[in-house]
Amino acid sequence: MPHHDPKLLARLSRIEGQVHGVSTMVKEGRYCIDVVAQVRAVRSALARVEQMLLDGHLKHCVEEAISSGDPKQQRQKVAELIELLGRTDR
Fold first, then answer.
1. What is the spatial distance between Cα 7 and Cα 80, in angstroms, rounded to a whole number?
2. What is the pLDDT of residue 3?
3. Quick check: 2 pLDDT over 80?
4. What is the rounded distance in angstroms from the CA atom of residue 52 to the CA atom of residue 60?
5. Contact 73, 65 (CB under 8 A)
């Protein structure tokens, strides 16, 4: 999936709006559980964006490395994924 994919950009714009909404809720002193519910919705939306990006990476970049027959490029792509997946979420 290209990084300039309109669907991805539209999804990110919606997430921006959600984050702004959470900020507004906090400023207004809204009920904690309502704010947390919105934070969870933002996290879920970001997880979907992450999934879309990883899917695109596998279908394009990794597939291209495999098709190239270049072992160095193949190892690099696998190493990138291992490093990424090895990082802990904070």
1. 25
2. 58
3. no
4. 12
5. yes
- Give the DSSP H/E element, type plus range, for residue 63: helix 63-68
d(CA 37, CA 13): 19
Answer positive or negative: Cα dihedral of 15, 18, 23, 24.
positive
Rounded Cα distance between 60 and 64, Å, is 6
Give dist(CA 78, CA 24) in Å, integer: 41
Mean pLDDT of the chain: 93
Tell me the HSE value of 72 on the side-chain side, using a 13 A CA sphere: 0
Give the Cα separation of 4 and 67 in Å (integer). 24
53-76 mean pLDDT:
93
pTM metric for this prediction:
0.81
Q: Distance between CA 44 and CA 70 in Å, rounded?
A: 36
Both tokens of 82, joined, read: 């291992």
